[in-house]
Amino acid sequence: MKAAVLRRYKEPLQVEELALEAPHVGEIAVKVAAAGVCHSDLYVLEGATPVPPPLVPGHEAVGVVEEVGPGVDGVSPGDYVVTSFIWPCGRCKNCASGRENLCENFAKVRLKGTLLDGTTRLRDGGGGEVRIFLGGTWAERAVIPATAVAKIPRRLAKPEMAMLGCAFLTAYGAVVNTGSAGPGDTVVVIGTGGVGLAAVQVAKAVGARVVAVGRNPAKLEAAREMGAETVDVHGGDPVKAVQELTEGRGADVVIEAVGSDETIQQAVDMAALGGRVVLVGLMPVGHKTPLGLARVVRGGIAVLGSYGARPRVDLPAVIKMVERGLLSPERLAGPFYKLEQINEAVEALRSGRAIRPVVVP
Question: Rounded to whole angstroms, how far apart are CA atoms 9 and 3?
Fold first, then answer.
């Protein structure tokens, strides 16, 4: 099969012919119909998230199951699925207690570029091992754990649905599970990329008032079209703007989807007394953020990390929201690229020209 391979950090990807082994116990092979290009992938390409190359990036996709390994039930060849970047083992303490997005065994291999058993199914033409980043879906086929997918009706298995497995799953986890946002709440979303705009949609779907904070005029316009009020950071102090929009109270929930020292502090300053700040934006591994703790302590503000959501529970819920017309991935996805155009897709995301480029192998 063909796949986009990163040989060295900060160098262009190469489309290569790779050998893909059959799925092992608990795994499935998926023919990739489309895969999203996410900022988390950019961190890998740059080495800020240090998964060892050579590797195949890509971690959100839609496709059809071609083969299942031993011990797999509930998924069969011919099923259309959305793949998640979260891989629950189903056996650790967190999985058993309903927090499978924080699977302990998955956390051990996440940055090693392997599957849950510590090995990879990919080999290059010389027989060398090729790793993956949370799926390796920038390829014609991928082998992933069966616990990392959710079935999707065939009529919905369109390229734009690839976004459900990361952007919308992350947004759902941040808004619903971690932020506990609901009707009547004011939710501020800092960042208008794929995750940020997906969070706008999820927050609107649960009945919240939404304010989107960003710097890209086209993306702010997209947020307005989805029902959000907007704050352009180029227009002045965004914290002051949010305070004015909320009559000085601040937001019940602030979703920080950028990942910078400045925006994290802004998120804390935008929160109401007793509010919740939900951090989903990633930084380079090892980076430490200074934080004004007086505001956190005296304001009783909860600062919460949010990593994805539960693929076996929440991803089906996200798909149902799409079926009911509450979420519209097609409003965020694109442009669409062939696998051979992968470097163009990466540059479209890096430059801010696209919200969520999609690769169609």
Answer: 17
At 282 the pLDDT is 84
The whole-number pLDDT of residue 286 equals 86
Helix (H/G/I), strand (E/B), else coil: 292: coil
Q: Rounded to an integer, what distance in angstroms lies between the CA atom of residue 205 and that of residue 222?
A: 16
Question: For residue 42, what are the domain limits?
Answer: 2-166+310-359
Q: Which residues contact 231 (CB under 8 A, 6 or more apart)?
A: 211, 212, 213, 214, 238, 241, 242, 245
| pLDDT score of 1 | 97
Longest dimension (CA), the chain: 64
Tokens 């991803």, residue located: 315
Angstrom distance (rounded) from CA 189 to CA 55: 32
Total domains in the fold of the chain = 2
pLDDT under 70 in the chain at which residues? none
Do both 6 and 66 map to the same domain? yes
Indicate which CATH number applies to the domain containing 93. 3.90.180.10
Separation CA 13–CA 156 (nearest Å):
30
CATH of the domain at 224: 3.40.50.720
Pairing of strands 209-214, 229-232: parallel
What pLDDT, on a 0 to 100 scale, did the predictor assign at position 283?
83
- Specify the pLDDT at position 139: 98
Query: Hey, which residues does 243 pair with through a beta bridge?
Result: none
Pair 184, 298 in one domain: yes
Domain end position, chosen among 305, 327, 351: 305
Q: Give the H/E segment covering residue 142.
A: strand 141-145
Q: Is the pTM here over 0.85, yes or no?
A: yes
Measure Cα distances from 278 to 131, 139, 146, 175, 191 in Å: 31, 32, 29, 8, 13
**E strands in 196-292:** 209-214, 229-232, 251-256, 271-279
Question: Token pair for residue 268?
Answer: 């804390």
